[in-house]
Amino acid sequence: RWLLLALRCLAILMLACGVAQLVAESAVFANLGGGQKAYVIVWDDSYSTGFVPPNTTASASAFARSQKALADWLPTLGAADKVMIIHAARAAASDARPTPDKQAVRARVLAAQLSDASTDLPAALDEAATALKDIGPSARYRQLLILTDASNSALRDPSRPADAGASEHLVKALAAASAQATSTRILDFGTPDQVNMAVTDITPLHPT
Question: Measured between alpha carbons, how far is 183 from 203 in angstroms, rounded to an integer?
Fold first, then answer.
């Protein structure tokens, strides 16, 4: 019980720190460059990140802003730095392994389309933990970056009560992935007026 409480507190603290650093532009990455590093990026490209605030354009969505931030940041990395993108949308394809070919990664980022699937941050973080563990001491700095809109559906288990806190799997996955990294940053691309509502179940009135 105490271990679970500690893990939950760690996850909530990390999420709170990320929310406190609202990021809308690629300038957030400016102080991450320099030196030989390995970056494992969990990119939330799920349907909720496509939310467009009223009276704005599609470029204002969390997906579009995080996409631009990644595309602007990747060319600033060192030649030997390696990058891996893990998509957080369910069943989304991710990079097989970290690569120093930032140009190819950037091309895939720019070509990426908003997914119509829901978020699965725990599974993405499990994949990140494995990747970071495999990198091991081959990279002195191992950065875990999580780009998300911090939507309620991404952070909580819909099968549990609304006041139950973060998903237990998410708490453990975040702790495990962070343990394999030398640094973890959560970048919140959500908007203040984004409504945390979603359709989770549909039952037809007249079955065919």
Answer: 44
In the 3-class helix/strand/coil scheme, how is the chain assigned residue by residue?
Answer: CHHHHHHHHHHHHHHHHHHHCCCCCHHHHHHHCCCCEEEEEEECCCHHHHCCCCCCCHHHCHHHHHHHHHHHHHHHCCCCCEEEEEECECCCCCCCCCECCHHHHHHHHHHCCCCCCCECHHHHHHHHHHHHHHHHHHCCEEEEEEEECCCHHHHCCCCCCCCCCCCHHHHHHHHHHHHCCCEEEEEECCCCCCCCCCCCCCCCCCCC
Do 96 and 127 meet the contact criterion of CB atoms below 8 Å apart? Answer: no
pLDDT for 21-79, tens place per residue?
A: 433 334 455 445 444 789 999 999 988 888 887 777 767 889 999 999 999 999 999 99
Q: Are 180 and 129 in contact (CB under 8 A)?
A: yes
Q: At which residue do the structure tokens 């002195």 appear?
A: 140
Nearest to 145 by CA among 90, 197, 77: 77
Number of other residues whose CB lies within 10 A of the CB of residue 192: 6
Strand-strand pairing, 141-148 and 82-87:
unpaired
In angstroms, the CA 25 to CA 48 distance is: 19
